[in-house]
Design brief:
Residues 1-40 have low confidence and may be disordered. This protein has helices at residues 12-21, 34-37, 39-45, 89-97, 109-112, 121-137, 167-174, 176-186, 208-223, 297-313, 332-346, 375-378, and strands at residues 71-75, 102-106, 140-147, 192-199, 230-233, 258-263, 318-323, 350-352. It is of the alpha/beta class. The chain contains twelve helices and eight strands. It starts with 11 loop residues before the first helix and ends with a helix.
């Protein structure tokens, strides 16, 4: 069983299910509703957002040098590439009111470029609406730009014309124009905290040097259109143990405002939690079923410390792009408490998978949009 080739985070079915179930226009009307009529007032009431940057130690920093611990949910803003339906202003206002500082927006490449060079302007318009609503609420946004998962080799939502032997290769060979479209359209938006250009880069056999070489191409492409916005780098499958020596192949023209990000679903059941290939052990909480034993708490820190040590050695700050556990998994509540306490003790931000998903396995909200009680612990 090639467990390492399953998207380490994702409950991939949930990623698709939310597209089909997140909205029936009657349940969550998303045109100009009464809530949206207050968008301008919300923008005036919310703190003015300043463009964030990164340092060697801090992932998100204000112009005055103060660090921002960016926390909040993953959220899918586009439910249908042919519809403008999306989360209303009230959703973003509620996320902000709950005490969160940002959202990681999950995007699927095939929504935007179904045919080579043919841009779906409706999808871009919907994303623009989502960004505007997040900004109006005072929330920062990380764009999970090419969300790889599924088969073949992470390319379930890679346009058919763009597929290669693996998802990372597809992005490096054919996805640079799409990433540049995002940078051109949104790079100057102060609410845009970072591009996370490739979710859980697929490459088997594991080859960290080649993944980082591809990241250099990606960074160069984005920087050609946007010189400042943070760019996130992820290890293979989102949670691999990468040797510092692999960074010898990472040679972008400009090495500024970069962030190292992992997806941390480790439940502490195997020491530091990496297999002989350096991949995070499976099963883990990303399957929505695997539970957590509080007795394994110390191993959560061992696992994270591997990534922190790497990041320090290559002078990159760390941000947790995804973590989560299934609603019915044993130890659910304590897992959240222990993970969040660990992240806070290390001074790093994090993003829960996810705000709402079709199966409900990871949803932070109930069917009536009210928060689940444990959502308060995530902040």
């Amino acid at each position: 069983m090639l467990m390492h080739r399953i998207a380490i985070s994702l409950a991939g079915a949930a990623a698709l299910a939310v597209t089909a179930t997140a909205c029936s226009g009657a349940e969550r009307p998303t045109g100009l509703t009464a809530a949206d009529a207050d968008a301008n007032a919300a923008a005036q009431a919310a703190p003015t957002l300043s463009k964030l940057h990164a340092t060697a130690k801090e992932a998100f920093v204000l112009p005055n040098g103060k660090a921002v611990r960016l926390n909040g949910p993953n959220l899918q803003p586009i439910w249908d590439p042919n519809s403008s339906n999306t989360w209303g202003q009230a959703t973003y206002n509620a996320i902000k009111a709950k005490g969160f500082k940002g959202v990681r927006m999950v995007l699927f490449w095939d929504d935007f470029e179904p045919r080579k060079g043919a841009w779906n302007e409706k999808a871009f318009k919907t994303l623009s609406t989502a960004l505007a609503r997040a900004k109006a609420a005072g929330l920062y946004v990380v764009l999970d730009s090419v969300h790889l998962y599924g088969q073949p080799e992470g390319q379930s939502r890679v346009p058919a014309w763009a597929r290669k032997s693996d998802g990372m290769g597809a992005v490096a060979a054919n996805g640079l124009r799409f990433l540049q479209q995002l940078a051109t359209r949104y790079g100057k938006n102060p609410a845009l905290a970072a591009y996370d250009p490739v979710n859980e880069p697929y490459r088997w056999p594991v080859n960290h040097k080649s993944v980082l070489a591809d990241y250099a191409k990606i960074v160069n492409a984005i920087r050609a259109k946007d010189a400042k916005t943070n760019i996130v780098l992820e290890p293979t499958y989102g949670d691999a143990k990468v040797p510092a020596s692999a960074f010898a192949s990472f040679k972008p023209a400009k090495r500024n405002n970069l962030v190292w990000s992992i997806h941390d679903y480790y439940v502490g059941n195997a020491g530091a939690g990496y297999n002989r290939d350096g991949i995070g052990v499976s099963p883990n909480a990303s399957d929505g079923k695997t539970g957590y034993k509080p007795a394994n708490k110390a191993n959560l820190a061992k696992h994270l410390n591997v990534q922190l040590a790497l990041a320090k050695s290559v002078k990159l700050p760390v941000w947790i792009g995804e973590f989560g556990i299934g609603a019915k998994a044993t130890g659910h509540d304590q897992f959240i408490k222990d993970k969040v306490a660990l992240y806070k003790s290390k001074g790093i931000g994090y993003s829960w998978w996810e705000y709402q998903d079709g199966s409900g396995a990871f949803s932070m909200i109930n069917a009536n949009d009210s928060w689940k009680p444990w959502a308060a612990w995530v902040k």
